[in-house]
Design goal:
Largest sheet: 9 strands, mixed
Low-confidence stretches: 1-26, 476-490, 583-591
Mean pLDDT: 87
Strand content: 15-25%
Number of domains: 2
Structural class: alpha/beta
Distance between the termini: 65 Å
Strand order of the largest sheet: 1-13-4-3-14-15-17-16-2
Number of helices: 17
Number of strands: 17
Shape: globular
Length: about 600
């Protein structure tokens, strides 16, 4: 029997995913389901399931109004719940819908075969080369590209590839011998410096680019006959930097090499010919899953491929140009596994394009909410999703986007912490409207700015939510961005705070006001004793900061006194500095 969810008729872009035939701690992000499609922030469904099982029964209506990639929906379907998902971002709705809408794996496989067969000629024309060892036809796996910079002292040109062993921030001119910072050297262009290819006889080989390779890589945009996105990208975008202009990036199309743009355009055209709506959506999902890896954003690293730096639109000085069809083939396998794994899940999910401040839901119709809203200025989702949304032909409406901008002024459409708090307060009020009286809301949040925590705390109070408890959720595998930031000494909290809230329920009487310092030290001390000599991340300032924030909120104490510096100073004062991990500890914090 198909489940009817309590949605109003005004929902836009809705998908129904119902299968009528089936019935605080540390989490890993390595599951096949989790990795089928990237998103800027994702909580593994395995971490969400315990909350659903604790706070709801089978058949309950579970809401996530900031659904992102739809992991709440994946968890709800696994556990026999009915997820109501929405997001302001067309990219998020597209990704969440495909994560939570069943797709018959065999039918998907046949659709993929049709795409492969019709794309063979294009693949050969774009990525074929010849093996320099045996002379046989081979297939280009990837090309490494390098910036070319101009020495500010003598004007000599230099490929940054030649400086890869000594680092790219500070360079030494091979012509005049003088040192200079990379940012002071004018960008003159980019060149291919290394080609990797697969030969049936010789295997995987590498070489400097040949004339044939250069012929394939240096193509003209005008040769592309099929459609590709040309959405503009300029100073009006929060994530725009001067370096984008230096690289000639003025639109979504400019994030791609001409060859890869041609390959993606050809793939997109063939996907558009698929007559079945569900299969077409699944093929687009596979496509958007490689759209960033196929771009100029896939950065080269001497130790290991570092993929695309999440949460930014950064383009590295050394970068890969990967074979689009190879990326496609690998992603097809991952997506097919996703569909095989989730096809018979007993629950259902419905997804709509909507602002969390205006949900298309009836009053008091939802049994529980689990949500992971935007963390202030941490990520600008509309910019991060630009490549996906460019291909999908639908952009996020920035008016209701809950972010704090650091580079864009309010006159240019930027948002202050106060404006962010206003949007979040309205979203919390909307949650209070649609949640049944007395049912819980689980809110996952993190920010290292006390001002952001203050507006979240105030917004929850104004919306009538009472804090029942707080704990932490530690991601066992930090993002590359998080690792890099920690290595460079930035204030990064790899652990999220999980708040259990209730609207309209009785507020517990408040006793004598406790000391914030005493409360957070008890929590930090317990965590240090509990973890012992275990995970270094759980003994880092970033993780202990999250423990401290959760303790303060759980005790209904203000968080404005809880900062990285105050947590570190407290640990120093208590003589527990030697229990911290070897990650950077500030030397200038007063005891």
């Amino acid at each position: 029997m198909q489940t009817t969810l309590p949605l109003l008729e005004s929902s836009e872009g809705r998908y129904l995913a119902t299968n009528p035939n089936s019935a605080s701690g540390s989490v890993s992000r390595s599951s096949g389901v989790y990795g089928a499609h990237a998103y800027h922030t994702k909580i593994p469904p395995e971490a969400i399931e315990p909350y659903l099982l604790e706070h709801t029964r089978t058949g309950a209506f579970v809401l996530d109004p900031f659904c992102g990639s739809g992991m709440t929906g994946v968890a709800a379907r696994r556990t026999g719940r009915h997820a109501i998902l929405s997001d302001l971002s067309p990219a998020a709705v597209h990704i969440a819908a495909n994560y939570t809408t069943p797709c018959e794996p065999a039918a998907y496989g046949r659709a993929v075969e049709r795409i492969a067969k019709s794309s063979e000629a294009v693949r050969t024309s774009l990525y074929s080369t010849h093996c320099h060892s045996c002379g046989e036809l081979a297939t280009t796996a990837y090309v490494i590209w390098s910036d070319v910079r101009k020495c500010p002292h003598c004007g000599a040109e230099s490929r940054l590839w030649e400086h890869r062993a000594t680092g790219l921030r500070n360079l030494s001119c091979t012509a005049c011998g003088r040192s200079y910072a990379k940012k002071s050297a004018a960008l003159l262009g980019e060149v291919p410096v290394r080609v990797s290819f697969d030969c049936l006889s010789c295997g995987r080989l590498e070489r400097d680019p040949t004339i044939e390779d250069l012929d394939r890589t240096v193509r003209l945009r005008s040769e592309i006959s099929s459609w590709y996105p040309n959405v503009g990208f300029g100073p009006d975008r929060e994530m725009w930097r001067r370096g984008h202009a230096d690289l000639g990036i003025q639109s979504v199309a400019d994030f791609y090499s001409p060859r890869n743009l041609a390959a993606l355009s050809a793939l997109w055209e063939r996907i558009a010919d698929e007559p079945d709506a569900r299969l077409k959506s699944a093929l687009k999902f596979t496509f958007t899953a490689i759209a960033n890896r196929a771009s100029r954003r896939y950065q080269w690293n001497a130790k290991r491929p570092t993929n695309v730096l999440g949460g930014t639109l950064y383009v590295s000085s050394l970068r890969y140009e990967f074979n689009v069809f190879s990326l496609w083939s690998r992603k097809v396998a991952a997506v097919k596994k996703l569909f095989e794994t989730t096809f018979n899940d007993p629950g259902s999910a419905e997804i709509s394009l909507a602002s969390a401040t205006r949900l298309p839901l009836a009053d008091k119709s939802v049994d529980y909410c689990f949500t992971d809203p935007p963390f202030g200025a941490n990520i600008v989702y509309s910019d991060c999703s630009l490549l996906w949304e460019g291909w999908l032909g639908a952009l996020t409406n920035p008016i209701d986007e809950a972010i704090v901008t650091r580079h864009r002024s309010t006159e240019a459409g930027g948002k202050t912490v106060s404006a962010y708090g206003h949007i979040m307060t309205n979203a919390f009020r909307e949650l209070g409207r649609v949640l049944k009286r007395g049912v819980p809301l689980t809110l996952v949040f993190q920010n290292t700015d006390p001002a952001v925590w203050a507006v979240i705390d105030q917004g929850l109070a104004e919306a009538g939510f009472d804090v029942l408890g707080a704990e932490t959720l530690h991601k066992a595998q930090p993002s590359f961005k998080g690792v890099k930031a920690q290595e460079e000494g930035e204030q990064v909290a790899p652990t999220d705070v999980v708040l259990l809230l209730r609207s309209g329920g009785p507020v517990k009487p408040s006793g004598p006001r406790a000391s914030v310092r005493d409360v957070i030290w008890r929590a930090i001390e317990a965590e240090l004793n509990n973890v012992g000599s275990g995970s270094s991340r759980r003994r880092s300032i970033g993780h202990l900061y999250a423990i401290a924030v959760a303790a303060a909120l759980g005790a209904r104490l203000p968080t404005d006194e809880v900062t990285f510096a105050s947590v570190e100073a407290l640990i120093r004062e208590k003589g527990a500095l030697d229990q911290l991990s070897t990650s950077k500890v500030s030397a200038n914090v007063a005891p």
